[in-house]
User: Fold this.
Amino acid sequence: MNETAKTRKNSWRQDPDRVKADILAIATEVFATFGLAGARVDEIARRTQTSKRMIYYYFGDKNGLYMSVLEAAYARVRAGEDALKLDELDPISALQRLVEFTFDFHRDNPSYVRLVQIENIHDADHLKRSERIAKLNLSAIDKLEDICRNGIEEGSFRSDISPVQLHWLISSSCVFNLSNRATFRHLYGGDLFTEAGQAGLRKLIVASVLGAIRC
Amino acid sequence: MNETAKTRKNSWRQDPDRVKADILAIATEVFATFGLAGARVDEIARRTQTSKRMIYYYFGDKNGLYMSVLEAAYARVRAGEDALKLDELDPISALQRLVEFTFDFHRDNPSYVRLVQIENIHDADHLKRSERIAKLNLSAIDKLEDICRNGIEEGSFRSDISPVQLHWLISSSCVFNLSNRATFRHLYGGDLFTEAGQAGLRKLIVASVLGAIRC
DNA sequence: GTCAAAATGTACCGTTTAGTTAAATTGTCA
DNA sequence: TGACAATTTAACTAAACGGTACATTTTGAC
Assistant:
């Protein structure tokens, strides 16, 4: 019976979808943790239930795998945005709710934020090349356009701020909350990242965004 | 004379400081561009006027070089902050000036921002280990403490927002403006990053920060 | 001048790493 | 059931990469 340890694994069940999903999930974690250059294909393979060969079989090369990971991450964002319903709210409340949703979403998806930061280190090269992400048409801006139009109409919003600016402003704080947590915590302490601290920041961001657009 | 091409470079002038500074400047660019794992020691050496050997002679190894680069970057930040004088201004004006300074400073130091983002990818591991940076005691918070105290005293500032929160809020937008420019531009267009667009964002950040702290 | 220590150049080495080869097993469908 | 395509395993390779050995030159103290 001491042969078994050395014998080839000579029986398996084919399950392409499962294998692909497995690789993608592990690769997402590893790329998010170590970056594109820092991630090791062998490390990804080791954590998978399959072999390195399968990574190359399904994703071509390391870059192809990274792009698939990035595309899957953006697809999840799109799905999240779609779930948000703001139609029945007045503009101020809708904006507040959107800010809170954005804050929570980023906080709940740290590896998405890390992938975005990694992508920025690479000057968004892979994002640019991805046709799948181009087709995604993220909907945050559409929602803000509605909110801004209504707000300006009813006179509660300034008219000199664009939806894109507003999206930028909201994103900046919600992304930074994750992307720069490590350095900020070390230099200025961790109070902002306790549960109470996060609740405070959430309110602060709402206040700053509403403060910026209010007439 | 056809020997000269192959002969060893058999004469030079010693200049340790110059060599170190040369390596550090080039390494800053390369690390900021490619990240810690992505940067190549050979590439840094190639761009230098000296050799790879000298990198190891002065900085020990790749990590030591990276840490020196990081420390030099933070030292420049500290120097920048020290140059800012806000004493004679009223709290609102001082805060506005600080926001504008922070915005401009980040915009003028893109490789600093990139290094910070890279450091965050690595969970601030090198920042934590650096005694030089620990001693630096960045002064932005001190300035904000003064401003907040005065502002609350004279009744123009809310009293439930801390200097650290405020610093976080200001940093988030000023950092994001550089750190996530590539992905944002690709997804939502480049209008915000023209000269006019940047002036608009600068005003927007001022409005949002003042809007957040005003009574 | 001499000598030791600091600084520099050239050539090289051992590992790590992305990527491949070749063969075996499983699934499908005529 | 048998041929053929899709999937999976294990072992291998070439190149890139961080790091080093060793010789040589410069500098400054005496």
